[in-house]
Design a protein that fits this description.
The complex is a heterotrimer of chains A (about 375), B (about 300) and C (about 260). Chain A has two domains: about 35 residues, no CATH class; about 325 residues, Orthogonal Bundle (ABC transporter involved in vitamin B12 uptake, BtuC), CATH 1.10.3470. Chain A contains 14 helices and six strands. In chain A, the strands form three sheets. A two-stranded antiparallel sheet of chain A has the order 1-2. Chain A has a two-stranded antiparallel ribbon with strand order 3-4. In chain A, helix 5 packs parallel to helix 7. Chain B has one domain: ABC transporter involved in vitamin B12 uptake, BtuC. Chain B has eleven helices and four strands. In chain B, strand 2 and strand 3 form a beta hairpin. The longest helix of chain B has about 30 residues. Chain B is globular and about 60 Å long. Chain B starts with a helix and ends in a 14-residue tail after the last helix. Chain C has two domains: about 160 residues, P-loop containing nucleotide triphosphate hydrolases (Rossmann fold, 3-Layer(aba) Sandwich); about 80 residues, Rossmann fold. Helix content of chain C is about 40%, strand content about 25%. In chain C, a hairpin with a 2-residue loop joins strand 9 and strand 10. The radius of gyration of chain C is 19 Å and the shape is globular. The chains are: A mainly alpha (about 375), B mainly alpha (about 300), C alpha/beta (about 260).
Chain lengths: ~375, ~300, ~260
């Protein structure tokens, strides 16, 4: 929260309190403004919030602990498929959200630990490739586990997932209070916003804690970290499984929001997209992950709405379709950021603790 | 028995292609310590360039002999790939040579997807039919075992190129400069080696091999498209690690072994898992092997013999 | 005298090279113990084996009467041995204060639940960690740089910071790997004062050093390593006169 407030241009450095309110107000009114441009934009914001959760989780792994995970989307898939299995006509099971969401998170965390145990002793670049392989293996299984027993329904995916139902309050239905009708997309927005806010709070508390400090130490110099007694293996596992947990929760939310899941949503490109968000925003920085996710979800959509009509007027037909534009944007963002501004849009600052905790008498 | 022999043969063909690509990974890794994630895309660029050149030529002069067509296509592919690799090193990697360890890798991933996107823009999303200029009519040297001329060409061409590369690295002055650079950039430059030039050259050389691999790959399957480089690239990387990354002989051995394991595995996986997994899981082998090798024997089959590094 | 650390026949080989062979020594509680020897004698290897960075091929270490775990650096630190590095290894992205706070990690307990809820115990622990870190900075005399990113500190101050970070792990034995390397005469004499202070405060010190003058003036007892073997162990005055030691240092022809 405070990191986000600090990132507010101009105000952040001068008046933190005001900046904090700016962030809160923007977050609250964003969907109302978006609705003026059409329903799609609220939907896009909803997705941006999901990507924020993913970016926050991946940032914990890559940015805090320094482990490059290229298979992160697999945990998202675990969460989404958990939802699909337990809340859809596919198996005819319809569990409530408060049971599935933690379960999906738990499964994802478990997957994180199972993957983490053998691979975490690998050096950075090898780790990246092996996690990429893990992501692909998960996707291959999703694609093919419709035979001989139909578990995942293969490439078609699973349809008609239950919507998010918060104790009898269905987020997929418009809410009517008196004469006012609140659109379902708003409901999802505010619910996701709550989830993101919770994630930010949790992750920020982790960052400034003894564990966050130990992660930072390990990322800076693993050997020195070991020499001061930090159990690097456990801390890496913790980062990996915590990151996976966020992926799992986001996956569950995604499944219920979208209403269907298929392997296509969990391709390597998606892992890379989330990584780009983290890199673009600024590794090791909560505000970076949030801003990166927002920018790289919204920008392709803005491009879609500007570039496509523009191309039609200029050339008479569409040269670059929206999907190409998105990939172009993501890959260029990644390369150019690394070359020109490796710290990202909002570079992380070197502070992992709160020296203000020092008692008055101590500091002289 | 005949199935096994057939699978081994198929594996050898794919394995030779992996080996060619793996050499590019291993050379760049040996010299820069960088996993050039985009190397697989170079294969794709090679195949698609050859496709464009060949189909254009076929349109212009329909009665050109097929081998000449293929030769020109291959040459064009090599030139384009070398230019792409040169630019890639120059524009994206050079600046990051001394950056923190993850930066060049992240950039390489970006370059990989950028190349795919550009290919998508140039050649579209569709699968293209790649003209099979060398016959694919199967012959039957042994009862029940089939092999076709393009498969033979693939194995022979790869073998010749690999021998040539080994000679280049071990017997020539250029090869010595490459080995020296791989050992230690600073010392090599003190000894009068132009390190930047050698690194560019390594990329370019690797790209030429990838171009050949791309054309052979596409000729074998009769298909080319913008994403075709990704899987072979990843598998070639696995092959390089399997053999011992940084080690030329290892890359070749790793490629062949991976090709064989994959082919045989795909043939028997259904039996092994009592029908639960089938050959659509073929791609898993590479990843599983990669994981196992990295975890239990990160130096690969041949270990890392520093003197062999190029 | 109470034994604090006992090395028993410790050996370590790298391929065909014997880096340490049958090294036995005993460090008593409260002393400053020196480990000297020419370059490549195996001093740093001894450190690495002791602190769990390498796994020894032979022998074991007994610390406070209990055998030390092998190849598990964090358990060695937990048992009460802290080290510094020959080429300073600080967490370059952190402030000086945070470096020391990180050093306190192993003596703190807050878990995820405590951190999430920020309960009283977690907050109190964090406050104590911060205070203790600040006191340690004061102790080594660099508290005015508490908020400075450590890579911007002077060389000598970085050395001091590394010692403070090691002390934050609350060790009984502090192992210093060439702490005076690269220091000028003034800095070295300040370092000597600091080490003596550390000893007075009840921490035993194991010191690898090249600076013979510093070692002789500071150590209660010392061992000399040469080609991975212990060739002498005694009080400085005696070791100084030992013939094998003189030969090793002056490069007597017997090894060629």
């Amino acid at each position: 929260m405070d990191q986000l407030a600090e990132a507010v241009p101009y105000l952040g450095k001068r008046n933190l309190k005001a900046a904090r309110w700016v962030v809160i107000i923007i977050a609250l009114v964003a969907p109302i403004i978006a609705m003026m441009f059409g329903r799609t934009w609220v939907r896009i914001l909803d997705f941006a919030l999901l990507y924020m959760m993913l970016a926050l989780g991946l940032n914990l792994v890559v940015g805090f602990a320094g482990l490059l995970d290229l298979g992160y989307i697999a945990f998202y898939a675990v969460g989404a498929y958990t939802w699909a299995f337990l809340a859809s006509p596919h198996f005819g099971v319809h569990w409530p959200f408060w049971a599935i969401l933690p379960l999906g998170a738990g499964f994802a965390a478990m997957a994180g630990i199972i993957l983490g145990f053998p691979v975490l002793r690998l050096r950075g670049d090898y780790l990246a490739i092996v996690t990429l392989g893990f992501g692909e293996i998960v996707r291959i299984f999703m694609n093919n586990l419709n035979y001989p027993v139909n578990i995942t329904n293969g490439p078609q995916g699973i349809n008609a997932l239950d919507s998010m139902n918060l104790f009898g309050w269905d987020l997929a239905r418009n809410l009517t209070i008196g004469d006012v009708q609140i659109h379902s997309l708003y409901l999802y927005y505010y619910f996701f916003l709550l989830c993101v806010a919770g994630s930010i709070m949790f992750i920020q508390r982790m960052q400034i804690s003894r564990i966050g400090r130990a992660w930072a130490a390990m990322r800076d110099d693993e050997l020195a970290a070991k020499a001061i007694g930090i159990n690097t293996r456990n801390l890496k596992l913790l980062a990996f499984s915590l990151g996976a947990t966020f992926g799992g929760v986001a996956g569950g939310l995604f499944g219920s929001f979208q209403g269907f899941v298929s392997p296509e949503s969990f391709s390597l490109m998606e892992s890379i997209a989330v990584l780009t968000m983290v890199v673009f925003g600024g590794m090791g920085n909560i505000a970076g992950a949030v801003v990166g996710a927002l920018a790289l979800t919204a920008l392709p959509e803005i491009l879609r709405n500007i570039a496509v009509p523009l191309q039609e007027t200029l050339f008479g037909h569409v040269l670059l379709d929206p999907e190409v534009l998105r990939m172009l944007l993501l890959s260029l963002a990644m390369i150019l950021m690394m070359l020109l501004r490796p710290g990202g849009l909002i570079p992380a600052h070197a502070r992992y603790s709160r020296p203000e905790l020092l008692g008055k008498g101590v500091r002289t | 028995m005949d199935t096994l022999l057939q699978q081994l043969l198929n594996g050898l063909v794919v394995g030779s292609v992996y080996a060619l690509v793996a050499l590019g990974y291993t050379m760049v890794y040996g010299i820069l310590g960088l996993i050039n994630f985009a190397h697989g895309e170079v294969l794709m660029v090679g195949a698609l360039t050859a496709l464009t050149v060949i189909t254009t030529l076929m349109g212009v002069s329909p009665d050109m002999p097929p081998l000449l067509l293929l030769g020109i296509g291959l040459l064009a592919a090599m030139v384009v790939c070398m230019i792409v690799a040169f630019l890639m090193e120059r524009l994206a990697y050079r600046k990051l040579r001394n950056a923190p360890r993850l930066a060049p890798l992240i950039t390489a991933i970006g370059v990989s997807f950028l190349l795919q996107t550009l290919a998508m823009i140039v050649w579209g999303r569709n699968y293209h039919t790649f003209p099979q200029l060398i016959s694919t009519t199967p012959m039957q040297p042994i009862e029940g075992v089939y092999i076709n001329p393009i498969q033979i060409t693939t194995i022979v061409a790869s073998a010749i190129i690999m021998v040539g590369l080994v000679l280049l690295v071990t017997r020539t002055k250029l090869g010595r400069a490459m080995r020296a650079t791989a050992e230690n950039h600073r010392v090599a430059s003190l000894m009068g080696v132009d390190v930047n030039k050698i690194i560019s050259l390594t990329f370019v050389l690797g790209a030429a091999l990838a171009a050949v691999a791309g054309v052979l790959f596409a000729s074998n399957y009769g298909i080319a498209h913008y994403a075709m480089g990704f899987m072979p690239g990843l598998k070639a990387f696995t092959a390089a690690v399997l053999g011992g990354i940084g080690n030329l002989g290892g890359a070749m051995l790793g490629g062949i072994v991976l090709g064989l394991v994959e082919a045989v595995g795909a043939g028997y996986i259904e039996h092994l898992t009592f029908g639960f997994l089938n050959s659509s899981y073929q791609d898993i082998f590479a990843f599983v092997i990669l994981g196992i090798v990295l975890i239990f024997r990160p130096t690969g089959l041949l270990g890392e013999r520093v003197s062999d590094r190029a | 005298m109470i034994k604090l650390l006992e090395a028993r026949n410790v050996g370590k080989r790298f391929g065909g090279l014997t880096a340490l062979s049958e090294v036995s020594l005993t460090i008593n509680k409260g002393e400053v113990y020196g480990l000297i020897g020419p370059n490549g004698a195996g001093k740093t290897t001894f450190f690495n084996v002791l602190t769990g960075a390498y796994i020894p091929d032979d022998g074991e270490f007994v610390f406070n009467g209990i055998e030390l775990p092998v190849g598990k650096p964090h358990l060695v630190v937990e048992a009460g041995i802290a080290r510094t590095f020959q080429n300073i290894r600080l967490f370059s992205q952190m402030s000086a204060l945070e470096n020391v706070m990180a050093g306190h990690h192993i003596r703190t307990k807050a878990n995820i639940w405590g951190i999430l809820t920020q309960n009283k115990h977690t907050r109190e622990e964090e406050r104590l960690t911060t205070e203790r870190a600040y006191e340690l900075l004061k102790y080594v005399g660099i508290e005015r740089f508490a908020d400075t990113i450590c890579k911007n500190l002077s060389y000598g101050d970085q050395r001091r910071l590394e010692i403070a970070r090691a002390l934050a792990t609350e060790p009984q034995l502090l192992a210093l790997d060439e702490p005076a390397a690269g220091m000028n005469a003034t800095e070295t004499s300040q370092l000597k004062v600091l080490i003596e202070q550390i000893r007075r405060d009840g921490v035993t010190v194991l010191l690898i050093e090249h600076d013979v003058k510093l070692v002789m003036g500071l150590c209660d007892r010392l061992s000399v390593l040469d080609f991975g073997k212990k060739i002498a162990e005694d009080v400085p005055a005696v070791v100084q006169k030992n013939e094998a030691v003189i030969n090793a240092y002056l490069g007597g022809g017997k090894h060629e």
